[in-house]
Amino acid sequence: MSAAAATMRDGATARTPYPQAARQLLRETLFGAARDELQRRAWSEITMADIAGAAGVSRQTLYKEFGSRDEFAQAFVIHEGERFLDGVEAAVREHLDDPRAAVGAALGAFLQAAGEDPLVRVLLSDDGAGGMLPFVTTQGMPVVHWATARLGGVIEEGWPEAPPAKVRLLAETLVRLAISYITAPGDSPETTAAHTGELLGPFIDEALGSR
After folding, report:
1. Non-local CB neighbours of 115 within 8 Å, separated by 6+ positions
2. Regarding beta strands 5-7 and 13-15, do their DSSP bridges make them parallel or antiparallel, or are they unpaired?
3. By residue range, what is the domain housing residue 29?
4. At what angle do helices 18-38 and 59-66 cross, to 10 degrees?
5. Whole-model pTM?
6. pLDDT tens across 92-139, in order?
7. Based on the domain organization, do 100 and 190 belong to the same domain?
8. In terms of domains, do 115 and 30 share one?
9. Scanning 16, 76, 104, 185, which has the fewest C-beta atoms within 10 Å of its C-beta?
10. Domain of 56: which CATH number?
11. Distance CA 154, CA 1 (A)
12. Contacts with 209 (C-beta within 8 Å, 6 or more apart), sequence order
């Protein structure tokens, strides 16, 4: 379902209530402003006033929506992560007949996309003076929880017979591995995905089985 409209049972569509649509537009505008600012300088150099000014809103509006600079940064990281999870979901759905292949393709798609995205390199660069890396690592539990829930939902949809506890364990393991690999890359995405599939293969077979 799109953010702008909801499908009704009779086939008609209903517009998103104005307050909800306005809030979504505000958040997208603020995230877009932050993305533009990050193309020019490090997060440690960007203030909330900078983001508000670039978005054309007051600093009070920004603080009212997010509460603090750290809360905004966490929400921004999750917002950017949505783009990568879309690719992961597509990779899983293309291999529903082969759980191991689905896991490998999903991880490979994520690492490939993240490695090619210039903004990811900016987000992960940290000079020890207040970069965004901690919001993915040491302060990254909201990101882990969000990504685990979303990936777990995709796995449950593809393999509804899988035990929920094992689905969550697999999803969280993959999320943590993905974060580890993008923050400290080693082999190519293809090699990393293949090695991960080999390592987790027995558990994947047990948890998801085969069709």
Report:
1. 182, 185, 189
2. antiparallel
3. 16-67
4. 110
5. 0.74
6. 999 999 999 999 898 888 888 887 877 777 766 655 555 676 777 666
7. yes
8. no
9. 185
10. 1.10.10.60
11. 16
12. 99, 159, 161, 162
Q: 114 in a domain, yes or no? A: yes
* CATH code of 129's domain: 1.10.357
pLDDT digits (tens, 9 = 90+) for 35-58: 999 888 888 889 999 999 999 999
The one-letter amino acid at 16: T
Indicate if 60 and 74 belong to the same structural domain: no
Residue with tokens 């009212």: 64
